[in-house]
Write the structure tokens for this entry.
Amino acid sequence: MLVENDFDISKLTSFKIGGKVKKIYFPENVDEFAEILKSEPDVVVVGNLSNILVSSKGYNGSVICTKNMDEIVISENSITASAGVKGIKLSKIAANKGLSGLEFMIAFPGSVGGEVYMNAGAHGQTISDVLKFALIYCPENGILKFDNNKMEFSYRTSVCQRMPYVVLSAEFELKPDRFENIQKKMNDNLAFRQSKQPPLTLPNCGSVFKNPEGNCAGYLLESTGAKKMFCGGAGVFDKHANFIINYNKATSMDVLTLMYNMSSAVEDKYGLKLLPEVRYLGGNDDNEVELCKKLQIESIKIQK
């Protein structure tokens, strides 16, 4: 198992932002993962780091990155994927096997663990529509198998955000369909996302804020002129106001400040508090920590 010290995590984050973490593990299977947890119960678990803003000042703790946990098993109409499998890859494999249900994942930058954790969704579909079982690590009881109901899915959340649970793998129940039909859905989804959202080549963290109930964060932000907002090297994407791009060596403080300005503009105009989808990892900068509290960023891990 690969283990590195003082690791520059910006090499892994989709934002291309982040300082050095004290120690990072790259397990390849569940047994290696469980072994780490025995010796480091407070370790932070991350996947493809596609919706995590890591502090430019680094993180003085240990991290598990599940990207090397990439096993995929296909059995009739179900696919089981380990936490590190990228959504794009899984969507394509399902299509090639004539299995429908994962078309919405074709443009997801994240991996299965994170996507199940946050009940990711797009184009009217979510993880909760197709998940049958998830293999979960529970600090008190070890490895458990949760069915869909026990995952307690709702909009952009699951029980794993309310409890200290980690998704190790997921089994998806899919439906047989012709490859041509599946491919058309995937192409339509890609075309829509490419017309509205930044390409994966532009460093970003996906949607910054959750949609308020009955409303759209992108619309609310655009109506406040957010598309013209910049802070340091970070700026709002010109085609969709709910995306922040690292245009020029942005720092985590640039992004948090921009997020605060965006959120404040919506709150001032509409009286609505936008809640972030982006999560934060850090703790070495008190100003960042204070901004995180004001933004109400979920699952903050602070360690100085």
